[in-house]
Amino acid sequence: xxxxxxxxxxxxxxxxxxxxxSLSQMSPMPILTLDLHPVPxxxxxxxxxISGDILDHNLLARLVTEYDFEMIFHLAALLSTRSEFxxxxxxxxxxxGTLALLQVAAEQSQRRGKPVRFIFPSSIAAYGMPNLATKxxxxxxxxxxxxNPTTMYGCNKLYCEQLGIYYSKHYQQLSANKPxxxxxxSLRFPGLISAFTMPSGGTTDYGPEMLHAAAKGExxxxxxxxxxxxxxxxxxxxxxxxxxxxxxxxxSLNHLIYNVTSFSISASDFRDHVLRAFxxxxxxxxxxxxxxxxxxxxxxxxxxxxxRRDWGWAxxxxxxxxxxxxxxxxxxRRYHR
Length: 337
Ligand code: NAD
Ligand code: AKB
Description:
The protein is an alpha/beta fold and 337 residues long. Helix content is 44%, strand content 19%. The longest helix is centred in the N-terminal third of the chain and has 26 residues, at 87-112. 49% of the residues are buried.
């Protein structure tokens, strides 16, 4: 008899750690986590962790024989900057890895006669604004606009969204018996900022890096221009979005891909907010033109009307609340215990 479980891949990363905590509080179903790295000690009692690679087909085959997955949060990925340094490896992890997990979910949906819910975090990287004038003019992009990514990571995300739609709507479309298909849902996240973990390998990392460096009393040279604008979100809202989308009744969903966002801010405004909380912070701007190019290609804002309308999405943390009530107090406590 297979054990029922919720699977989280990439669980040792930033979103994974935040998700394990919330999910374990609200769902009685056992949580199985899979990551190349172990989850930190404090999460060990909340999940059953397997250290392993999503590209290991033998491992996935073993999991399928042992577990009946009700839901899969597929978070494992290489982020944008890291992916530009190793594009072929990024393709393997981000695309081949996702395909392998979609196959697991498709197979399990058929065997149990009930769709496995598959939640996939996509990204603003799926967009590609051709120049700064267009980024300024088409400030708040809708899901179907400017789907011209310029990074391997963005290409991977956009394609995996399409793969998810294929597996949930058209898989085995020529077979005589229509199979029970998986239930794929995806969110396009902006840059996420956690008070408890540090990002690595992303291009929105300058925001959280600036804030954490200030709290630690370290100098920080920001790798983008002061006028660079991107959308951001506090980590608790990202987890709320994942959980709300995963719980939304299927009839309410008019799309499978949804933008979600909270606040858009320039790098200089970000610095000003950090300085208000940590007046001694030493923040300078030393743009890396290659990473700047990626930031310039991402939209200034996301239009998240569809998520608001279809499943009641609304962030709890706007810019002010994110800094005053979540980021600053928790980061302060973290470094000044
Ligand atoms: P992260 O880098 O902190 O975590 C990713 C995790 O995936 C890491 O723990 C890593 O060890 C694991 N991983 C990588 N390759 C693996 C493999 N082959 N097998 C098993 N595990 C592997 O990233 P995150 O911020 O937690 O992001 C999680 C997901 O959300 C990713 O898909 C990312 O693209 C997406 N996302 C994140 C942001 C953000 O700002 N953090 C924004 C948009 C989308
Ligand atoms: C990155 O910068 O790669 C991520 C993302 C926006 O997907 N933070």
